[in-house]
Amino acid sequence: MKKKIYLDYAATTPTDPRVVETMLPYFTKSFGNPSSIHSFGQEAKKAIEEARDKVANLIGAKSEEIVFTSGGTEADNFALKGVAFANEKRGNHIVTTAIEHHAVIEACKFLEKRGFKVTYLPVDGDGLLNPEDIKKAITDKTILISVMHANNEIGTIEPIEEIAKIIQEENDRRDSSLRSESPSPERSEGRQAISNKQSLLLRSKRIYFHSDAVQTTGYLPLDVDKLNVDLLSMSSHKLCGPKGVGALYIRKGTRIISFMNGGEQERKRRASTENVPGIVGFGRACEIVKDGMDEEAKRLTSLRDRLIEGILERIEAVRLNGHPARRLPNNVNVSIEFIEGESMLLNLDLAGVAASTGSACSSSALEASHVLLAIGLSPEIAHGSLRFTLGRGTNEEDINYVLETLPKIVTRLRAMSPLYNL
Ligand code: PLP
Fold it and tell me: Residue 199's pLDDT is what?
């Protein structure tokens, strides 16, 4: 039988059979609508709340801070548009990076058309953002900063905690200047007995910090308090859960408006009947992934490094994209000069290896990836890039097979390339 090796886990993952098993009753026996007050509905509601606890538990959040969405894209859109429109009266400036996922970049472009100003910060040659650039970009009009936790194409892990520290300093400065202002009218008139803290919160001019953690959830330990983020996006299908479900973590007190209007689901933050089987599956996937995450990260890191070293050793004129050390345990991204990524991909596929040229979303588009261009690659070199992303099913034999197969493909394609041997 022909070998089939899946090395595209960043695009999506197979759903864990234990997850499928947990989901199944919610299609048939326990099919109730969680908003119904009868026992069918209450059974589904209970299952959703249990799943919410599991998702919250994975990232150190409180359950009520988790809003289920249809995936990472919706979570990103909700965070950006929800915070932008809820805070537009006090500022219209958003800061993000040039290497975000399309879900963030396109939401920013949408907001730019509606009067918001967006600063897209550059990254260095390894894809790393300099936190000092965040400091320089902040203005009095800044309301939101969005920086991804790890990049989906090149795997670089961004310095989220350092960035959060800078934002915290700015928020402390804003709060202390608020405190020195005259008390709010409500207090001075004594009409409402609200505490200083509440008054400050109501008038707060803080900058909210969002991070897209779609690629890190399940691979690296996440703690929203340690990271000090206000909003965090997750997607179930990247961690062996079902597709079409994700979540946005929203820190209590964050001013945000929902953009799905309708019923009162998700505490009025996201209307529409909940995807009960999906949510239950996502919760189970979070529970499974939490167990043994450290060992799995170590295993993947060692396989990743073996693949990187093997490619660099066996093929000439190759570069590793992304940070050599601050990178996801499962990400390998290389540019192989003088040949097209698409040709390599097709040949690898014929040999039974599924990889990618960039993100799943851009691999059907022929433009060079905005991430590879942002780290300074020329469009030609960017076009010769390949991404292998490893996962639970990957083993040493798979890596050996790629290391045997890829150099042969490269030699064959280079022999046909008019650019090689010039
Ligand atoms: N953000 C990042 C970093 C991603 O890698 C992806 C998917 O590839 C998304 C967002 C979108 O997630 P979803 O496919 O669940 O909409």
Answer: 66
Beta carbons within 8 Å of 326's beta carbon, 6+ residues apart: 126, 128, 156, 157
Does the CB atom of residue 213 touch ligand 1 within 6 A?
no
For a pocket test of ligand 1, which of 99, 108, 152, 362 has the largest count of ligand atoms closer than 8 A to its C-beta?
152
What are the DSSP calls for 71-83, one per residue?
SHHHHHHHHHHHH
Written as one letter, the residue type at 165 is K
Closest CA to 45 of 236, 276, 241: 276
Q: Is the pTM of this model over 0.85?
A: yes
Number of alpha carbons in the 13 Å side-chain half-sphere of residue 89: 5
Determine the Cα–Cα distance for residues 140 and 205; give it in Å rounded to an integer.
9
Ligand 1: which atom is nearest the Cα of residue 76?
10
**Distances in Å between the alpha carbon of 15 and those of 5, 18, 391?**
16, 8, 12
The residue whose C-alpha atom lies closest to atom 5 belonging to ligand 1 is 152
Note whether 276 and 47 are within 8 A (CB).
Answer: yes
What DSSP character marks residue 259? S
Is 241 touching ligand 1 by the criterion CB < 6 Å? no
Q: Catalytic one among 108, 240, 286, 361?
A: 361
Hey, whose CA ends up nearest to atom 14 of ligand 1?
72
Span from the CA of 214 to the centroid of ligand 1 (angstroms): 6
From its phi and psi, is residue 49 left (phi > 0), alpha (psi between -120 and 50) or beta? Answer: alpha
Q: Is residue 283 in contact with ligand 1, taking CB distance under 6 Å?
A: no
C-beta of residue 132 within 8 angstroms of C-beta of residue 103: no
What distance in angstroms lies between residue 372's CA and the mean position of ligand 1's atoms? 17
In Å, how far are 103, 162, 209, 261 from 110, measured between CA atoms?
11, 28, 19, 19
Residue 361 appears among annotated catalytic residues: yes
Q: Mean pLDDT, consecutive 10-residue segments, the chain of 422 residues?
A: 89 98 97 97 98 98 98 98 96 98 98 98 98 97 98 98 97 88 54 61 84 97 98 98 98 94 94 97 97 96 98 97 98 96 96 82 66 95 96 98 97 88 63
Q: Is 150 helix (H, G, I), strand (E, B) or coil?
A: strand
